[in-house]
Structure formats: C-alpha cells, structure tokens
Amino acid sequence: MKRIVFTNDKGGVGKTTTVANLAVGIAKKGRKTLVIDMDPQGDVTYALLGERAPEAGDGYVPPTTHALLTGHYRIEQVSLEVNRYKNLFIIPSNADLADAALKLGQRPTRLRSLLDELPVNAFEVVLIDTGKGLDPLAVNALAAAQEVIVMVSPGKLELDAIARMKENVDLVRNEVLLKAGEPTIKGILLTLADQYSITRDTLERIKSNYPGLALKTSIPKNNDLQKAIGRARSIFEIAPNSKGAQAYRQLIEELGL
Q1: Distance (Å, rounded) from C-alpha 163 to C-alpha 167?
Q2: Which of 110, 116, 165, 245 has the least CB density, counted as fewest CB within 10 Å?
C-alpha cells in the first residue's frame, strides 16, 4: 500500500486539483485508491463527491476524517465509495476537522497507526490531501506517508517555500517517527506552469538547488482544469485530450502509480 501526501507552504498551487485528478486517473487504471482529506476546507471532498460532507450535530457523527481521528469510526467505516468512479474511495472532511487539530497535538502518529491496522491489500494507493503549513493535522498526514510531493507554483519565493517544507519533512521523520527513510520527498511538482520566463526560471532554480527532485512533469495553467474542478468533475471527463489531462497521465506514470 503506497501512501503519498501532497503538501505546500501556501495555498493556491492547485493541490486539490492535482489530488483529485490523480486519484481518478489511478482508479481508472484499475488500482483501488483511497483519498484522505486532511484539510478542514474539504475541497477535495467536494471535487470528488460533488457535495460537502455533513457536519456533526444533535448526536449525529458523520463519517469524516474528524470522526476517524477522534475514535468514532475505523478507516473501513469512513471510506466512502465515489460512485462516479470505480475503484475510488474517499474519507471526506469538513470544518469539524479543525477541532481535531487541538486534540492531535500529542498524537502525531494517529493517522499512521490507523492506516497500519488495515490489511496490506485494503488499498493499493492512498493519497493524502493537506492544508498549508505545519499544524497537527499536517504533521499527522506527513507521519502517515511514505512519500511526499511538494507542490509549488512559479515565483521568486518558491525556493524558500521548498526549504520550509523540507525542514517539515525532516522534522517529522527525525523527531516524530524517529525513523530513517519515511517520509521522504519523492519529488517537487511545478504547477500552474505557462510559457513565461518566470516558469522556466523557477524550474531551473529547483533543478539547481534540489538536484534529482524536480519532477519531469509540470502541470500547466489550463482553463479546462479550472472548468473541471469547478464542476466537481475530473479532467478526464471534461477534456480528456487537453494538456491538463495529458499532464496528469504523464505524472501518474512518472510516479509509478
């Protein structure tokens, strides 16, 4: 079971778009895929389900990441099948998850422990979506992962953002898990790429400062991708022959998924 977390130091880099489309693309290959939404905004939940997860109230505890992390459910009980896509499941999120962050400060490996309880063949691929920064939710997500994809968009400050994310990954590996090898940065993914010099300059700086980590695939700035995510549909449905769809197919192959 391969576990990959997608993270960034700021918002607006197309993380939700990437996680949602990768998940659909991997599932379309016949691989049983689980998405875990670890962001209280719940954007990837909406992108895949077409609706927001219900919030708790009047004794009702909906099957969400909040309920999972606070002990109300097991993973198999909150893994909802995405009806539109065969082989795809999601643990949805909502604003309740922000409350769980306060309780997870002393339990940084809660999500990892829950995943470790699953049978090895429960899922082939687990993709974890996080919010920005390094709050207890992000620490839990990083600690649960084997591999990390750091996402950046073109800009002069992106090297600083990558350095901070690398520090976060090192912190979780060395001080939370006390374990060599996991999590490790699998690659740095450039998104919102276009034909302008700032994109080329950013990519060259990444290659120079982090040799071997810049992924060959970049995700283009593409109207079809924005249209698809706005309709809560995958790019493979809305524009299967677009540059965006081609980029995600290429990324799936590059990541060995």
Answers
A1: 6
A2: 116
User: Other CB atoms closer than 10 Å to residue 8's CB: what's the count?
Assistant: 25
Q: Would you state the structure tokens that stand for residue 64, as one six-digit string? A: 């969400």
What residues have CB less than 8 Å from 37, skipping those under 6 apart? 43, 44, 45, 65, 90, 91, 92, 93, 129
- Sorted by sequence, the CB contacts under 8 Å of residue 62 that are 6+ apart come out as 53, 54, 55, 56, 94
Strand bridging mode 88-91 / 33-38: parallel
Beta carbons within 8 Å of 96's beta carbon, 6+ residues apart: 40, 55, 56, 64, 66, 67
Please count the residues of the chain. 257
The answer to whether the CB of 19 falls within 8 A of the CB of 127 is yes
Q: What is the pLDDT of residues 94-138, one digit of tens each?
A: 999 998 887 887 889 999 999 999 998 999 999 999 988 788 999
Share of the chain above pLDDT 70, in %: 100
Please state, in angstroms and rounded to a whole number, the distance separating the CA atoms of residues 33 and 218: 23
Quick one: how far is CA 172 from the chain centroid?
Answer: 17
Q: What is the DSSP string of 153-215?
A: -SSTTHHHHHHHHHHHHHHIIIIIS--SSSSEEEEEEEEEE-SSHHHHHHHHHHHHHSTTTEE
What is the C-alpha separation between 220 and 200, in angstroms, rounded? 12
Residue owning tokens 């962001």: 39
Tell me the CATH number for domain 2-254: 3.40.50.300
